[in-house]
Amino acid sequence: MGRPALLAATALLAVACEQATPAAPSPPALPLPAPTPTPSEVPSPTPDPAAARLRLVRVAVLEAPLALATRPGDEALYVAEKGGRIVALQRGGLDRTVLDLSGEVSDGTEQGLLGLTFSPDGRFLYVNYTDVNGDTRIHEFATDEDGVVPGSRREVLAVDQPYSNHNGGHLAFGPDGYLYVGLGDGGSGGDPHDNAQDLSTVLGKMLRIDPRPSDGRGYRIPRENPFVGRDGTRAAIWAFGLRNPWRYSFDRESGDLWIADVGQSAREEIDVQPAGSSGGENYGWDAFEGSLPFEPPFPKGTVGPVYDYGRKLGATVIGGFVYRGSAIPALRGTYLFGDLYNPRVRALVPRKRGFRHVELGVGVDNLVSFGEDQAGELYLLSLDGPVYRLAPGRP
Ligand SMILES: [Ca+2]
Ligand SMILES: [Ca+2]
To answer: Most buried pick, 11, 84, 111, 267, via CB within 10 A?
Structure first.
């Protein structure tokens, strides 16, 4: 991309520096991922993202903000900083530090305090970080009106990370009340241990768990998870074949799950899991990179992306949300996303088969994350510090 600010960010999700060379399958054998799913139809005014007039309102400047969450019944926006702090933003901007894990997190480009979310009843805060050894830790804290309850910390899940990159990091509760934990393939390049297709490891997976303790374990596995009782699998797995699902979100109206999976060296992809899915989807990695074959063997029944793009448009997809707010009617029902290496914020517009993208006329340098508030309005976080709210008006 050649822009100094972007170069300085040195690939938070490091894709460009990976040199793995995929084995090239012979042309006649080129497989294609299975047909892509169709997101649920939700009645809403016809969106027209191309007609939207937008501006970005800066609500705060923080230190490498990576994730934003809200707590039910609470107007504050909670933002996780890469270095380990969680801060609360009120209308006037920065309000207070809620939690400080600095000194407990690793500081590689893809490491740190990577994600946070609150339980649907607002009683618990969950954080996802890489510890000083680089391993993933998901911890729970009880909350009250004053913030985090001292002494309430509890480990939900810990995952060894073989390499410093591809840690995933996001946390989100689904409409079913379960916690969805996206884990990258463990890292390096080309998934050297083929973790994403291996159901005996949680790496390269989307997990679905009830994060409350049960029988001395840190979490409970929902009985309906697709691999429960199957030998040689991890019962927490909900879906697999993911490379680094850095950001994903549930459409608050339809319940569809949108997963943005960061690509290797050719394709950035966006996957959709329709609401009501019973899980078990194979999103393809590392047999496929987006819609392209990557490395044999090519399993049957993989699910292709609803949209993927090449290096002209970016190098690290940053998944956003289906917009369900009220401030910008032209965007209602439209999925927004961006890329760490392309400041232009984009939206997906349906076409006969799949989607095309439109640019929304606003840009964020070093975009690392989107957030959604209680009213469904969207926020954009830059690794450089600013947190913006997307608002109607001229750019
Ligand atoms: Ca591999
Ligand atoms: Ca895929």
So the answer is: 111
Check residue 39 and give its pLDDT.
83
Asked if residue 7 is part of any domain, the answer here is: no
Residue ranges with CB less than 5 Å from ion ligand 2: 283-285
User: For residue 289, which ligand has an atom nearest its CA?
Assistant: 2
Which pLDDT score, from 0 to 100, does residue 44 have? 55
The CA–CA distances, whole Å, from 269 to 179, 247, 280, 325, 389 equal: 23, 12, 19, 25, 25
Residues with Cβ within 8 Å of residue 300, at least 6 apart in sequence: 34
Total structural domains within the chain: 1
**What's the pLDDT score for residue 149?**
94
Q: Of the bound ligands, which one is closest to the alpha carbon of residue 192?
A: 1
Weakest-pLDDT range from 8-12, 139-143, 167-171: 8-12
Distance spanning both ends of the chain, measured CA to CA? 23
Question: By residue range, what is the domain housing residue 290?
Answer: 48-392
Judge whether 134 lies within some domain.
yes
pLDDT of residue 394: 66
Proximal ligand: closest to the CA of 317: 2
Q: Could you tell me the distance, in angstroms and rounded to a whole number, from the CA of residue 119 to the centre of ligand 2?
A: 29
| Average pLDDT rounded to a whole number, residues 261-270 | 97
Question: What is the full DSSP assignment across 269-319?
Answer: EEEEE-TT--S--B--TTTEETTEE-SS---TT-B--SEEE-TTS-SSEEE
Which residues does residue 140 pair with via DSSP β-bridges, in sequence order? 126, 154
286 domain-assigned:
yes
Q: In the structure encoding, which two tokens stand for residue 63, read together? A: 């230190």
Q: What is the pLDDT of residue 92?
A: 75
Say if 2 falls within a structural domain. no
CATH number for the domain spanning 153: value is 2.120.10.30
Contact 318, 368 (CB under 8 A): yes
